[in-house]
Known about the structure:
The structure holds 2 protein chains of 2 kinds. Chain A has a domain at about 75-255: Orthogonal Bundle (MetI-like fold). Chain A is globular, with a radius of gyration of 24 Å. By secondary structure, chain A is mainly α. In chain A, strand 1 (about 40) and strand 2 form a beta hairpin. In chain A, helix 2 crosses helix 13 (about 255-285), helix 3 runs parallel beside helix 8 (about 155-180) and helix 12 packs antiparallel against helix 13. Chain A is built from 13 helices and 2 strands; from the N terminus they run αββαααααααααααα. Chain B is an all-alpha fold. Chain B has 2 domains: about 5-60, no CATH class; about 65-270, MetI-like fold, CATH 1.10.3720.10. In chain B, about 70% of the residues lie in helices and about 0% in strands. Chain B contains 13 helices and no strands. Chain B has helices spanning about 5-35, 40, 55-65, 70-100, 105-115, 125-135, 140-165, 170-175, 180-210, 215, 225-230, 240-260, 265-270. Chain B is globular. The two termini of chain B are about 25 Å apart. Chains A and B meet through helix 1, helix 3, helix 4, helix 5 and helix 6 of A and helix 1, helix 4, helix 5, helix 6 and helix 7 of B. Chain B: Keywords: Cell membrane, Membrane, Transmembrane, Transmembrane helix, Transport.
Amino acid sequence: MATAHSKSAARLMIAPAVFVLLVWMLIPLCMTLYFSFADYRPMRGVFETWIGFENFIRFLTSSSFLSSLVTTLQMVGGILVITIAGGVLMALLLDQPMFGQGIVRILVIAPFFVMPTVSALVWKNMFFNVDNGLFSYLFQGLGFPPYDFLSQSPLLSIIVIVAWQWLPFATLILLTAVQSLDSEQLEAAEMDGAPALARFRFIILPHLSRAITVVILIQTIFLLSIFAEIFVTTNGAFGTRTLTYLVYQRVLESQNIGLGSAGGIVAVILANVIAIFLMRIVGKNLDN
Amino acid sequence: MARAITTQKKVMWTTLAWCFGLLMFFPILWTFLTSFKTEATAIADPPVWFLFDWTTQNYADVQDRSNYPKALMNSIIIAVGSTFLGILIAVPAAWAMAFVPGKRTKDVLLWMLSTKMLPAVGVLYPIVLLAKWLGVMDSRILLVVVLMLINLPIIVWMLYTYFREIPGEILEAARMDGAGLRSEILYVLTPMAVPGIASTILLNIILAWNEAFWTILLTTVDAAPLTKFIASFSAPEGLFYAKLSAASMLAIAPILIMGWFSQKQLVRGLTFGAVK
């Protein structure tokens, strides 16, 4: 039984964590909210505290906002598709009996621990580079003309880089889920003559649904704020400007704080919509 | 009933899995190999695989680039500092939530998780402004605090899931025997919690080490860690693949090794206990 004494002690122990997170969330967020209604351009010495919803209207109606939204959805969607599909296949593969399973697992997981700036630069220079990249040699060897990945399909290139980083994460979590699968059920289905595809569709996939949901939730949160990979490869050019990147450019590059802050608030709202939506699914899954 | 696995099948799976494993690992392997080549060999056409004159010159060159040791030092201080500061704040909170759960414990936990979902760009300018105002722009202490705050929800959640696995009866017994709150924590809880705390520390050092939004945008020279140092290579400098590779290997090697040790904790730490 928790006594009243221990209850108040508990509150005291939680207080610092709650306090710092509250400060961290509230103060900057209120400042962003405040700036979002102001015309604030420090480079030009402009500071007008209240201009109503003008920043929001300008931000939301600009073509760069719509294209950044589309880019964000394509990027996050593309990465999710690759990592979930690849992760399920990889997890099932790693679950098979084999020699050196531990080592294979280490090899597969490794990309997740590579610093984002390192993986972006390694891919950009040593693989995608049109003159000296490995892919160019590969294309040459196969008789194709060299292809400049980062300027001809920049979005796909970034998707490849980030998917490479996150596939290990999806694999690892899905592998954990696959390993908790009741093998007797699978064997029974096999003996009853259920083909491999049916076993996958009706036993394995339903079992993995919760883990897949969790992977989608967590990856979406992290992927919405992809930054370094864009920063060192295209710097937001050639249709790779995501919402995060657009706001960053408005705030720090063109120093239009009012407009950028309005964009920041829009990003916060969108992220919250996704977060609530996804947390509900996870909550429901957790109750089952 | 265990199925008899034919060797043939096992060999087939082994081959397939190793192919995929090596494919995933290939960019790292290639970086590793390139780091031991000369710049000319690094871009040789056709590519050279293993048969070249291995040289460690690139590693020496990178070390000589005046800012590498500083960047390494900054990375270590920022990653370790933010993790320990986070642990200091999170351990009491997670302990209280795990052992003295109240009506709102779950709400508090979910709220903490929600702060993790706040997009960084939403608060970018205020943080820059506050940092300038406090005169801590481009300082290690700023990054220690900021990275602590962005990882605190994960630290609390991880510790919470570990602490919850400690049977409450043991604490009851300790309390019955007259142990106060202090000795309860010190002599009963701590020894049982050490493995969980260690795993949490490990995972969060990795996350902080690789964080590349705040570390790039809040530093210029003095506090720039390896993420920023490596990003400086994105400016074209002519033939630099071998040096880039050496710098990359130096930046990822320690974390790669730590990461392999913390595979299991990764699942727990980043899924907030939803997948075990």
